[in-house]
């Protein structure tokens, strides 16, 4: 039972008018893991998550959440999942703690509300109605509402959008604790650092499909290569350097006096470059190794142009 | 919070507890809203006091010829109170709930949709009980002497609530929140004037009157008047009009209501 995946999506298609918001998406989420669904705006992240939550009926493909069909078996699924919408979800006149207490009453074994309120810094909201809370307070309330029912699986749609750095860290800590206590977390984000920090698995979504999937380390290692950058005299003869380097390595002068070596960057390669510089009387003013971040991988895969 | 705090322990609360909690919250939201109170309590109470004290519109006396203007007004004001909560208040509140994503969010909670609708209906009924209690006290102080069978009054109020709730939810579930706000207030005003609440339908030309009599507000205010002023048993014609509106409104709302 607990070895079954928490979420299993096969060939999901969701159309809005003539456009496929989701276009043949596959995704498997292990139990007690954190999966980040990463993608540019309009990639289909929210549609995918909302299909798992039972809000949307797939046009094609299958979705199983905790082994259940989110639409046909909604009544059985809903008590077991926690949902944080991208925005809203609270009566405009309700107070934060009042709404959280209310949500707690809908579950059989809810968390104690007071420690959760303190934990997420909602105690200071007092009698302020929801519509007058700050964006950050509204986000933290939505997060608290997602976890108060002690779910097995939580879906967090952009949980840190609009949060200040402290609140963002607090949210990250909470996600880590959820995972440590055996809760499965699926979150969407377009912050690479968030995915790198939190996720066991990252699924990069673009144009309604998963175009890369793996741990952050796997994604950074595979696909994109690492680079070594150094500066020296302009117009050095790189032919002799290339001979000294292993096959598959490339070297180029980017602008006058700035050189880039791309390939599998390891200590031996660094030594080779350094000794070649010594032989040619080149004093590198700077020499740096640039490891690819998830951001590089992301931009490489999804393209660098801005999207509407 | 220590390790193990979030260890899963999922499960829905018993549905009766969920409905109770949801009813309490919905009622609190209604009573906390200043504009809603203006509509549901202050306007009906002011109209009752004002038109009883000042002879602005000559009102027909009861069939025995001894009635006072409050005997005519009180049933109409009770009908207005039902409309203000079940129709106007519910349409506006539900429209904004939809707009703020409340209905969507609750849709992902263990609370089933039918239980949410049940809770909304109960909260409307709780509010109506408070309104009717307050308005009855005011009317009695103004010299009101009600007649008739309280069970007939209850039946009319329930039928009226069903009719107005259906129309209110239909509006809230299909229009944008701002549109609902404007339209619900406009309809409230039009029905207040043309629905036999304070202006007797006899004041309108016959052709207009026969159309106005088919409005749910006219059926409710004339029905209540037939019982409370004239001591009729149950006015079947008015009850049938209300039942017709209830079937139409609730049926259309069930088919057309959009949750997001």
Topology:
The complex is a heterodimer of chains A (308) and B (260).
Chain A: E1 7-16, E2 19-29, E3 34-38, H1 45-52, E4 60-65, H2 74-77, E5 81-84, H3 96-105, H4 113-119, H5 135-147, E6 153-157, H6 165-180, E7 184-189, H7 192-198, E8 201-206, E9 209-214, H8 216-221, E10 226-231, H9 239-244, E11 250-255, E12 258-263, H10 267-279, E13 287-290, H11 294-302
Parallel strand pairs in A: 3-7, 3-8, 5-6, 6-7
Antiparallel strand pairs in A: 1-2, 1-4, 8-9, 10-12, 10-13, 11-12
Helix pairs in contact in A: 3-5
Chain B: H1 15-32, H2 34-53, H3 69-99, H4 102-107, H5 113-141, H6 150-174, H7 177-194, H8 206-212, H9 216-228, H10 236-256
Helix pairs in contact in B: 1-5, 2-3, 2-5, 3-5, 3-6, 3-7, 3-9, 6-9, 6-10, 9-10
Description:
The complex is a heterodimer of chains A (308) and B (260). With 308 residues, chain A is α/β, with parallel strands linked by helices. In chain A, 32% of the residues lie in helices and 26% in strands. Chain A contains eleven helices and 13 strands. Chain A has helices at 45-52, 74-77, 96-105, 113-119, 135-147, 165-180, 192-198, 216-221, 239-244, 267-279, 294-302; strands at residues 7-16, 19-29, 34-38, 60-65, 81-84, 153-157, 184-189, 201-206, 209-214, 226-231, 250-255, 258-263, 287-290. In chain A, the strands form three sheets. A six-stranded mixed sheet of chain A has the order 5-6-7-3-8-9, with helices on both faces. In chain A, a hairpin with a 2-residue loop joins strand 11 and strand 12. With 260 residues, chain B is mostly helical. Chain B has ten helices and no strands. Chain B has helices at 15-32, 34-53, 69-99, 102-107, 113-141, 150-174, 177-194, 206-212, 216-228, 236-256. In chain B, helix 1 (15-32) packs across helix 5 (113-141), helix 2 packs parallel to helix 5 (113-141) and helix 3 runs antiparallel to helix 7. The two termini of chain B are 35 Å apart. The A-B interface holds A 53-55, 75, 78-81, 83, 85, 87-94, 98, 102-103, 105-109, 111, 115-116, 119, 130-131, 145, 147, 149-152, 177-178, 180-183 and B 1, 3-13, 17-18, 21-22, 25, 28-29, 32-33, 96-97, 100-102, 104-105, 107-112, 260.
